[in-house]
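Give me structure tokens for this 220-residue protein.
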Amino acid sequence: MIVWRGHEARGLSHGEVESLWVEGLARAGVPVAMTETAHPRPKIAFAAPVPVDALAEREPIDLFLAERLRIADLRPRVLEALPPGHDLVDLFDVWIGEPALAARVVGADYRVEIPDVDGLTDAFAELLASPRLERPRRKGDGRTFDLRPLVVSLEVRPADPGRPVAGAVVRMRLRHLQEQGTGRPDDVLAALGDLLGRPLVATETVRECLVFAGEPPSPT
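Here you go.
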């Protein structure tokens, strides 16, 4: 299924969202299959966690059922189970032998609204031309990681029609790499802010979609 995650879900950790899904599906009577482990868990598989402060437009989730149901019968139960701030975009059957979603994710497209645009294009060019971009790890242990391989593209585009934005809409395609990690919009904004000599703060961050292996290498 594909779901939309809005403002009401902002601030929820991935673990909190997963718990809300599990509780909602049980409450709605969805016959979710259980894992065959020492501590069985409902088989609901997310492609990739959404950053805590981000919205998301098209989030794929695999839901494994213990019994076969028609989509017409399942849809109302899933709608009843939706966590706060979520909506159902699409619901469809998937071949049981399909590779796991998480294993196929190679990147994500983000739309980030920022009010401050002075010098932004030059900062984009400098960041993308850098062979390495050392950034501190989130654990605060003094170690760093190279952000540069995780950034595919950066560009400024006009705001979506009907949504006035004071500043600019920055679109980013960021990689998900097994060895180097996952590109995050706030890390990119922090790096751009360092290049500009002032902090860049997002007024809204939206993950537009995930990118899966075999899809085009850059945004259109």
